[in-house]
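FAQ

Q: What does a record look like?
A: Structure on top, sequence underneath. For example:
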């Protein structure tokens, strides 16, 4: 049985309480555990040391309609203002060092430069090629500095996980960010926030 996410985008006017402006669009409600962990720290199997917007509990001044109690139905809340989201460093490492089991997959982008496109579990074929190249059986973090493996039309390198890998700002949550950006133009960056909860 998997977890679900729900949430709202809230706004406030000076001297007024927060109110719900929008519900989360369907794209943000999909079960994307890795994105949830990168964005909000909800466990998703990546074993990250930090997330972009930590689980802080429900805001004390949350809008009516935002469940505050944790328990059987809701077991965690997170929130972030548009100011925090707009200032976020999507390339900040979310782990202290490279991932021990995953490898970064770089492929040529539109301009021909290599672009990180995925970070899957390291394929056995890549591990076998790495052993041939480096002369011993090593996981990606143990490869020599600058070490890489070319396989299946891509370059495989050790990878340090960031939000851009599993929750890029132009990815699944882009409609949420776009809606918040639009609301912030009228209300101010500190007066627009997304509040989510998991159940």
């Amino acid at each position: 049985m998997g977890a679900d996410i729900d949430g709202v985008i809230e706004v406030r006017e000076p001297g007024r309480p927060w109110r719900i402006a929008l519900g989360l669009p369907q794209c943000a409600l999909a079960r994307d555990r890795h994105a949830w962990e990168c964005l909000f720290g909800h466990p998703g199997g990546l074993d990250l040391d930090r997330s972009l917007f930590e689980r802080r509990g429900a805001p004390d001044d949350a809008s009516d309609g935002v469940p505050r109690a944790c328990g059987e139905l809701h077991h965690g809340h997170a929130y972030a203002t548009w100011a925090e989201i707009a200032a976020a460093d999507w390339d900040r490492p979310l782990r202290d060092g490279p991932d021990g089991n995953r490898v970064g997959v770089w492929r040529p982008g539109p301009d021909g430069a290599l672009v990180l496109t995925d970070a899957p579990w390291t394929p056995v074929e890549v591990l076998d090629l790495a052993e041939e190249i480096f002369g011993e059986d090593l996981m990606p973090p143990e490869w020599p500095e600058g070490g890489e493996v070319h396989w299946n039309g891509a370059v495989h390198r050790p990878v340090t996980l960031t939000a851009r890998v599993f929750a890029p700002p132009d990815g699944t949550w882009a409609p949420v960010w776009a809606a918040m950006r639009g609301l912030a133009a009228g209300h101010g960056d500190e007066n627009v926030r997304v509040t989510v909860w998991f159940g």
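Q: Is there anything notable about this one?
A: The chain has six helices and eight strands.
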